[in-house]
Design goal:
The structure holds two protein chains of two kinds. By secondary structure, chain A is of the alpha+beta class. Chain A contains four helices and two strands. In chain B, strands 1, 2, 3, 4, 5, 6, 7, 8, 9, 10, 11 and 12 form a twelve-stranded mixed sheet that branches. In chain B, strands 15-16-21-18-20-19 form a six-stranded mixed beta barrel. Chain B starts with 10 loop residues before the first helix and ends with a helix. The chains are: A alpha+beta, B alpha+beta.
Chain lengths: 106, 882
């Protein structure tokens, strides 16, 4: 896990992308996360983490459909790469191991 | 009204988005925002939605999402720029001759121009190192006699400084400077050595605080027994010894004083118009008790004033006439004289002041101006070369351009390509030129014997100019793109070169180049002729074989032991010596004058001012001066010390009709001293040829004077000098021997002209080379283009000479036109320059015709290199393909 630097928001976004599967694009990810976290997120923060993770190779993207609601602009659909999924798995394992060794959290 | 859904977010936010967000991400982000905006519109008011939208946009301004500094072009055009550079390099390589000519041409032109720039910058840097430079002025004096300016001097009266400071407000301080050869006796390791010191400066203590010569404390020179040495003078006298506190016996005039070395300062910078080896207090050798130390009659000192910052020099000058009248009024009225005192900024002295009594031979502002023009002309020639060659070359690249055009190249892209092309050439040339300058500046300085401002390369304005040069040069060439573009548009693949739309550009280029070239050659010729004219001008003096030895000023004790004439007597015994004389003055230097001389029968108002030199016997014979009437000093053996010889100009001025009339007449001076004219000498030039011959009176002093003139007869020069030195060592064992030739001394006053000649000749040669290189490149290009035509013509029976004519005639026509245009321009330049001299050479037609023929001859020679080769080639060689 030495090279996998994943911020909290980045991890959440990555998880959301995996969860949303084929329909993961900017607005959808934002809405999903806002729903779950019960707080508003800015387009800028979501976009920044998406771009950063794409740069790191955890995500790939391609243009999707344009809709009228988007003013004729195309969506960019994100999907996690194998590396991205592996990193999520690693994070999860590290965490669960840590939780295991802590006797009781409450 | 529009439905809510169709309302788009505020325009200005979209603008921000488009101009700041990385275009690669733009569509997606814009889409996302739009989608959110639409859903917001369903929930909230338009205002709130817009506000939320704006907020989101502002939050988007994060480094990761912004445009990179290089912009999007990096992604799109990187490849094509790389391709341009590759093509440019290949085409440089493919046309080696043209490339070498282009790059070498710009390199040479640029390094010459930088050298000129360095020279000009050095000449303009004179005296700029003084911190108070803007407050420092020198007092100049015009002597006006009966309304006519008689002399303009850089030196003024010794009382002027002190009296002006006392009477006029606005003068912060004044300093008088007098530089006169003296002697010093130095004790080192208990051995006494007598040195002659050429340039000791007798200065007021305030000199130190007014000027920046490395010691700003004026108290150092307040004690009369102090002396300040420069570093090299100190090294000369004391070697490695600590000079501070050492005592030097200083001999000047009738004083012989022990002075203590109080300080050692750095050597005077070469770009100072005041040069000295040591500083001595003025009041030590010109004490109050001496009438000349504070006199309104003796003008032997240069006076500098430091003005209060709020005082303008004009304001101060307006107070001078009253000052002069107060102290000198009576004498002025008696003799109908007037004096105009003026202030000259110290920073303007070196380039603009050419008065009598300058401390150093100054530079010439006009030469600087001419050299600046030469630098620009050289650059212009090299640019024209570059434009011509590139332009000619481009016309062969039409195919390449057409392909690029078909593949969708825009006008700006073709422009960019040409620009990158010549940017590459220019950058290479700049690198070469800078390495030439860096490695050979010392060589150039030594070779041309000039000083350059080597620190120039550290200045930002130099780099700015270089950058401008590169950009302008590259742009100049790139504007060819329009012509090329039109040419492509015409879709004519094969067209005779000379009918190409851009050939007029080349024609004008060649015409201008050769015009410039001819101007430079004619000017060089004129400068060379004029200078050799004045250097070889019959001065009326036999100057070649005369050497001058300056006798040391001995201390009182030594004088008793060695009579003044001992050295002279020893020389007279040498068989080959033709004649020996002594004088106070060396021709070519400044002379003193005496006022109010008239015939005894005339009234005081008719008094004239004459230059006066004191000489001993045999003076006329030694210098080869011709006697017009009367007799020489040595012919009349008399104890009388009032014998004088006049020159012809003086006899006319004093009112004698013929020189003979003056002989044996009696003259009287304003101080009622009577003198008897015993002879009249033919006019000779005792000062510079820039001036006309002035009236001169040679006064006879039968004793031995400071300068010994030896007219060496026939014989081996080396041997003769050795024998003179042996005699010297016998008479003056403690003083170092030194001598100089009279002609060298006379030529010294033309040093700035000689410098100008050398520089101008060198740069004209360079300009010639550049222009010829250009025509070589161009003709080689044309010849290659027409190689098939030549082949066909030859097959059809054309002769070699007709082919050479065919290939060269076009150039010759242009050269002739350019040269013809240049003739009047060069005439104009030359006549301006010649106005510097009182004795000018007449402008002969041979300069023009000769230069014209030279240019034609050289161009024919260069042209024939290419054309003969092409015309004599076997036609089969060039026709066998295609």
């Amino acid at each position: 896990m030495k090279k996998t630097k994943l911020g909290e928001l980045e991890e959440l976004v990555l998880l959301t992308v995996v969860f949303l599967n084929e329909s993961a694009y900017g607005v959808q990810i934002k809405l999903e996360l806002e729903n779950r976290l019960k707080q508003t997120l800015s387009v800028g923060s979501i976009q920044t983490s998406l771009k950063r993770m794409e740069e790191k190779g955890y995500l790939t993207s391609e243009f999707g459909q344009a809709t009228k609601k988007r003013g004729g602009k195309r969506k960019r659909i994100y999907s996690a790469t194998t590396l991205g999924q592996k990193v999520l798995q690693e994070m999860k394992e590290v965490r669960s191991k840590l939780y295991d060794v802590i006797p009781s959290i409450a | 009204m529009k439905s809510k859904q169709q309302q788009s977010p505020p325009n200005w936010t979209l603008h921000i988005l488009k101009s700041f967000i990385n275009p690669y991400y733009l569509e997606e982000i814009e889409g996302d925002l739009e989608e959110l905006h639409q859903s917001n519109l369903e929930k909230y008011s338009t205002f709130k939605s817009n506000w939320l939208y704006t907020l989101e946009v502002i939050k988007l301004l994060r480094p990761l999402l912004l445009k990179s500094a290089e912009g999007v072009y990096k992604m799109n055009n990187y490849g094509i720029v790389k391709n341009y550079i590759k093509v440019a390099l290949r085409s440089l390589w493919a046309n080696k001759l043209q490339s070498v000519i282009k790059i070498a041409g710009i390199t040479i032109a640029l390094s010459s121009s930088i050298t000129i720039y360095q020279y000009i910058s050095f000449e303009r840097s004179f005296d700029a190192f003084h911190t108070n430079i803007n407050q420092l002025y020198r007092v100049d004096v015009d002597r006006i006699h009966r309304g006519a300016v008689q002399s303009r001097k850089a030196s003024s009266y010794s009382a002027f400084g002190p009296d002006a400071q006392q009477d006029i407000s606005g003068i912060e301080s004044f300093a008088r400077v007098r530089i006169r050869t003296s002697s010093v006796v130095v004790a080192k390791d208990s051995i006494l050595t007598t040195h002659s010191i050429q340039k000791p400066a007798f200065v007021d203590p305030s000199f130190l605080s007014m000027f920046d010569f490395g010691l700003k404390d004026p108290t150092v020179l307040v004690e009369p027994n102090s002396i300040i040495l420069t570093r090299s003078t100190s090294a000369k006298y004391f070697g490695d010894l600590n000079p501070l506190g050492q005592v030097i016996t200083f001999i000047h005039g009738r004083y012989e004083l022990p002075l203590e070395v109080k300080a050692v300062i750095p050597d005077v910078r070469t770009n100072s118009h005041i040069q000295f080896e040591a500083l001595v207090p003025y009041h030590a050798f010109y004490p109050k008790s001496d009438w000349i130390s504070h006199s309104w009659d003796w003008s032997g000192v240069t006076t500098y004033l430091k003005l209060r910052p709020d005082i303008s020099p004009e304001h101060l000058e307006s107070a001078f006439p009253a000052l002069v009248r107060k102290y000198k009024g009576k004498k002025m009225e008696e003799r109908d004289m007037d004096y105009k005192f003026s202030l000259r900024p110290v920073k303007q002295i070196h380039l603009n002041s050419h008065l009598d009594g300058e401390l150093e031979a100054n530079g010439n502002g006009q030469s600087i101006y001419f050299l600046g023009i030469a630098a620009i002309l050289i650059l212009a020639i090299s640019w024209l070369n570059n434009v011509n060659l590139t332009n000619a070359h481009n016309s062969t690249r039409v195919k390449e351009m057409s392909v690029r055009r078909v593949l969708g190249a825009h006008k700006t892209q073709i422009f960019t390509q040409l620009f990158i092309d010549s940017l590459l050439t220019h950058s290479l040339a700049v690198c070469f030129a800078l390495s030439v300058i860096l490695t050979s500046a010392d060589l150039i300085e030594g070779w041309l014997d000039i000083s350059l401002d080597l620190g120039l390369l550290m200045h930002w304005h130099f780099w700015l100019l270089t950058l401008l040069f590169v950009l302008f040069g590259s742009l100049l060439v790139s504007f060819d793109y329009k012509l090329i573009f039109n040419f492509i548009g015409q879709n004519k693949r094969t067209q005779a070169i000379e009918q190409q739309p851009n050939s007029w550009l080349r024609k004008t280029g060649v015409t201008f180049q050769f015009g410039i070239l001819l101007v430079m050659i004619i000017t060089t010729w004129a400068v060379k002729d004029q200078l050799s004219y004045i250097q070889n001008y019959n001065l009326g003096i036999d100057k070649e074989k005369v050497i001058i030895i300056e006798k040391p000023r001995l201390s009182r004790a030594e004088r008793k032991r060695t009579p003044a004439s001992t050295f002279q007597d020893k020389l007279e015994n040498l068989s080959w010596v033709k004649s020996i004389s002594t004088s106070f003055h060396v021709p070519g230097s400044e002379l003193g004058w005496t006022g109010g001389i008239r015939q005894t029968t005339q009234t005081k108002e008719l008094g004239q001012d004459l230059y006066v030199s004191a000489v001993s016997d045999h003076y006329l014979k030694t210098l080869g001066l011709k006697l017009v009437a009367g007799s020489r000093f040595e012919d009349i053996s008399s104890e009388a010390n009032n014998h004088v010889i006049l020159n012809e100009t003086a006899t006319q001025l004093l009112g004698f009709d013929k020189p003979e009339d003056a002989v044996l007449s009696e003259l009287i001076s304003s101080t009622d001293r009577k003198q008897k004219v015993i002879g009249v000498v033919k006019d000779f030039h005792f000062s510079s040829l820039r001036d006309h011959i002035e009236p001169l009176m040679l006064a006879h002093l039968p004793r031995s004077l400071d300068y010994v003139f030896v007219n060496l007869g026939k014989g081996d020069l080396y041997n003769q000098i050795n024998q003179v030195e042996t005699a010297w060592k016998e008479v003056y064992p403690n003083a170092p021997f030194g001598f100089f030739f009279l002609d060298d001394h006379i030529n010294q006053q033309y040093s700035s002209d000689i410098e100008f000649k050398k520089l101008f000749t060198a740069f004209s040669a360079i300009a010639t080379m550049l222009a010829l290189m250009g025509i070589l490149g161009l003709s080689s290009f044309y010849t290659t283009q027409r190689i098939k035509e030549i082949g066909i013509r030859k097959v059809l029976g054309a002769s070699l000479s007709s082919m050479v004519w065919l290939l060269s005639s076009r150039f010759l026509l242009l050269i002739v036109i350019g040269s013809t245009l240049a003739l009047p321009i060069s005439y104009y330049f030359i006549s301006i320059w010649l106005q510097n001299f009182a004795y000018q050479i007449a402008i002969p037609w041979i300069w023009f015709l000769g230069s014209f023929m030279l240019v034609i001859f050289l161009s024919l020679l260069i042209l024939s290199l290419q054309t003969v080769k092409a015309a004599s080639a076997n036609p089969v060689e060039c026709l066998k393909y295609e």
